[in-house]
Amino acid sequence: MAQRTAAQVSNEAPARYAERLRVPWWVWPPALAFAALMAAEVYLGAGRWIWVPYVILLPATAAGLWALGRLRVAVEDGELRVDDARLPLRYVGGVTVLGVDEKRLLLGTAAHPYAFVVQRPWVKGAVQVHLDDPNDPTPYWVVSSRRPATLAAALLAARSAGNGPAAGGERP
User: Fold this and answer.
1) Which residues contact 172 (CB under 8 A, 6 or more apart)?
2) Maximum distance among all alpha carbons in the chain?
3) Domain range spanning residue 96?
4) Whether residue 42 is found in the same domain as residue 95
5) pLDDT digits over 58-90, tens only?
6) Closest by CA position to 126, among listed 95, 98, 86, 92
7) Are residues 91 and 55 part of one domain?
8) Which stretches of the chain drop beneath a pLDDT of 70?
9) Which helix (H) or strand (E) holds 140?
10) How many helices (H) and strands (E) does the chain have?
C-alpha cells in the first residue's frame, strides 16, 4: 500500500473535529445529593405529600446537568460550530491554544467586552479564535475544549485547505 502525503490526505477529506462538553460523572452524585437534601428541607410535612419535592427537584437537577453537558464544539462543513453559533472559517484570522492561566486572564481582567465566550468551568483548556472580519465588532471567540491543540489544528487545517465557503460575499 502506497503511503500518502499530508497534502493528499487533507485534499481527500476536510479537517473535522467534534466534541461534546459533557458534565463530568463525578459532578452528578453531589448535585443529585444536594437536590435530595433540598427536597428533604422543603418537604410538605408528614403524610402522603412527602414525595412531591423529590419528584420535582431530582428530575429538574438531572435535566439541568444534562442541558449543561449538551454543548457541542465542531469544525465541519467549512464552519466552526459552538452549540448554535456558527463561524465560517474564512473569517478565522488565527487560533491560540489557551492554558488555564491564559483562559483565566481572557475571562477576567483582559476580557474584551465584545468577545464571544463559551466556556465550561469543568473544562481546563480553551482556544482563542481571532476573527478577521472588519464588519464584525467581535474581536475573538474563546471556546472551551478538552483537546484545545487538536481543535486549533483542525481549525487551521480546514481554513488552509479552503474548506470554507468561497472568499467574499456576505456573512450569513
Assistant:
1) 86, 88
2) 76
3) 83-160
4) no
5) 999 999 999 988 899 999 888 999 999 999 999
6) 98
7) no
8) 1-15, 44-46, 163-172
9) strand 140-144
10) 5, 8
Q: Is residue 51 included in any domain, yes or no?
A: yes
- 39 and 108: one domain? no
Does residue 172 lie within any of the structural domains? no
Provide the pLDDT for residue 45: 67
Is residue 1 included in any domain, yes or no?
no
Helix (H), strand (E) at residue 39: helix 28-42
Asked whether residue 144 is domain-assigned, the answer is yes
Question: What's this model's pTM, rounded to 2 decimal places?
Answer: 0.74
Residue keyed to cell 437534601:
37
- Residue 104 shares a structural domain with residue 132: yes
